[in-house]
Design a protein that fits this description.
By secondary structure, this protein is of the alpha+beta class. The protein contains two helices and five strands, in the order H-H-E-E-E-E-E. It has one domain: Beta Barrel (OB fold (Dihydrolipoamide Acetyltransferase, E2P)), CATH 2.40.50. The protein is elongated, with a radius of gyration of 20 Å. The termini are far apart.
Length: 122
């Protein structure tokens, strides 16, 4: 009977360890200043910034969206997103890019668009 308790305990500990490691590996740190983004060696980070509306280009053939965001210090950073442009991108004031800084630009895998009109009272 004791061996069943030991085996059950080992199985429970294994599942808890697996769950914890999966949770930790799925976490993506939030980095708010671009100087820290450029030196980060993490595989994936989240970078928020104000969208610089006059520096947005979209190539439908690729498809690739290239734009600039501005951090709280006023510094700008180029972001390249290879994928379909989010439908509400033109109305966005803030963008959170998820990816990694590489070759002089932030290579975004995912974009989270913050559209203020969605949250205003009508």
């Amino acid at each position: 009977m004791k061996s069943y308790y030991i085996i059950a305990g080992v199985v429970i500990v294994a599942f808890v360890a697996l769950g914890a490691s999966s949770f930790i590996s799925s976490m993506t740190p939030y980095v708010e200043t671009f100087d820290k983004v450029r030196v980060s060696e993490l595989d994936k980070i989240q970078v928020p910034g104000d969208l610089v509306k006059d520096k947005v280009t979209y190539d439908m053939k690729q498809p690739a969206l290239v734009f600039f965001i501005r951090d709280t210090k006023g510094e700008e950073m180029k972001v390249i997103y290879k994928g379909v442009k989010p439908s509400n991108f033109e109305h966005a004031d803030r963008v959170v890019a998820v990816g990694k800084y590489h070759n002089g630009a932030f290579q975004a895998e995912k974009l989270l668009v913050k559209c203020p009109s969605k949250y205003q009272k009508k």
